[in-house]
Design a protein that fits this description.
alpha/beta; Ribosomal Protein L4, Chain: A; 2 domains; seven-stranded mixed beta sheet; 8 helices; 7 strands; Large ribosomal subunit protein uL4
């Protein structure tokens, strides 16, 4: 057809582009830059937060028999400065409390009750219930079904766990500030008013445990002076355990007992 003009096809120009940078690579670069900046900031803050190590050990208040303050005593960190393990303390408390409870209750079964060997009446014809023994649990004077029996239960802790439980109990009391050291308390007279006056001045409430050294003859007066006071109990260093420490709200150490517990390390006074 001569009258119609042919449509011209536009020429396509080919442009050679360089290598395309995907958006994923750009995002990765930004993320790495942000994380590096955050790490640098955290390093700077860590350097500023770090403080100098403090003096080793925990301190406890020192008093005389009259309740007057004499300063402080440094407690060794190995015994009084450990982080308490609550699970071990709970396990030790359960073992100590279960060993203290005695299961003495005991009842007799139908086989253990005296008598009842013969059949009380014939099987049929009497109109009453069938019975084979007068010591049946259904009869008055018979045995007891499923009654309590004597049980000897003794739970034990390994030696290392027992020592650690003691250390954790002492550390928890030291961190709470419930430990006080009394000077020359083992040389007092056998008078209750001396110990009662000391407790009033120290403002100790509820249960108080007084720990003394292992000398056999020197503490008779102290034991006599404190036995009429309900809120205080006396224990020697060798008999000290985690159960007594956790159960008591206040812990009083004589200076001799603290020296015996620490051992070779001398007790420092501030």
């Amino acid at each position: 057809m001569a009258g119609k003009k042919a449509n011209k096809i536009p020429k396509t120009t080919i442009v050679q582009a360089g290598p395309k940078t995907s958006s994923k690579t750009v995002d990765k670069k930004r993320i790495t830059e942000v994380t590096e900046k955050k790490s640098q900031r955290s390093r700077k803050t860590q350097k500023t937060v770090r403080s100098k190590p403090t003096a080793q050990g925990v301190s406890a208040a020192l008093y005389d028999i009259n309740g007057q303050s004499l300063g402080k005593v440094v407690l060794p960190k190995e015994i009084f400065g450990q982080k308490p393990n609550k699970n071990l303390l709970v396990q030790a408390m359960r073992i100590y409390s279960s060993n203290q409870s005695a299961h003495w209750a005991q009842t007799k079964t139908r086989a253990e009750v005296r008598g009842g060997g013969a059949k009380p009446r014939r099987q049929k014809g009497s109109g009453k219930a069938r019975a084979g023994s007068i010591r049946s649990p259904l009869w008055v004077g018979g045995g007891v079904a499923l009654g309590p029996k004597y049980r000897k239960i003794k739970l034990t802790l390994p030696k290392k766990m027992k020592k650690k439980a003691l250390v954790f109990a002492l550390s928890s009391k030291a961190q709470a500030g419930d430990i006080k050291v009394i000077k020359n308390i083992e040389n007092i007279q056998a008078k209750t008013k001396i110990v009662a006056g000391l407790l009033n001045k120290l403002k100790t409430k509820d249960n108080t445990l007084l720990v003394i050294s292992d000398k056999s003859n020197d503490q008779k007066n102290l034991i006599l002076a404190s036995r009429n006071i309900k809120q205080i109990s006396v224990s020697r260093v060798n008999n000290l355990n985690a159960f007594e420490i956790v159960k008591s709200n206040n812990l009083l150490f004589s200076k001799e007992a603290l020296a015996a517990l620490v051992g070779e390390k001398p007790v420092k006074q501030l």
